[in-house]
Amino acid sequence: MSSNEELVIALPKGRILKEVMPLVRSVGIEPEPAFDDPDSRLLQFKTNHPHISIIRVRSFDVATFVAFGAAHLGVAGNDVLLEHDYPEIYAPVDLDIGHCYLAVAQPKDLEDDKDPSRWSHIRIATKYPHLTHEYFASQGIQAECIKLSGAMELAPGLGLCRRIVDLVSSGATLKANGLVEVEKILDITSRLVVNRAALKTRSVELNGWIEKFRTVVNGT
Known about the structure:
By secondary structure, the protein is an alpha/beta fold. It has 8 helices and 11 strands. Helices cover 31% and strands 31% of the residues. A hairpin with a 5-residue loop joins strand 2 (44-46) and strand 3 (52-57).
């Protein structure tokens, strides 16, 4: 990566994008008007800096784009970072946005079996098979993980499994689908992430942006 290459910032679609954009704008990066156009089908956007562009991708894909050097900076939840565990990623700043947590949930009618310390083997649907397996292994529980990309709450009712591990924000989705939370696994916030190789070859530039984000987050 040469220092005169375009700097690419990967941002996640959805709820986190709304939370992160005030920070992005506060550090002095303003995307082109199409970025805020709901009818735009663009995935890469110019900014007020001629050599900086923003790409908008799925939250799980931010880490992959940054790890493989297709993006130099990005924003990703620590759930995504721990699930992928890419050594190529450095996460220097907790942005204090995207607050939620990862939890185990099950149907209400399993009320008499909600103590994880009594489990020995479970089948569980999740978007986070690595995190889930590691968490239960640390407790001596064998977890058979079924990977789903969404609609996790349907799995127990349709007989795919008895329990799920999923993100919880308000808990409304669990309640609406007849599920109850059993145990919290991990608190989650979004982090500024950087490609380690780019940080070495473009240290002045990237450390400058890291410090700008840190300053905005700390309110100093």
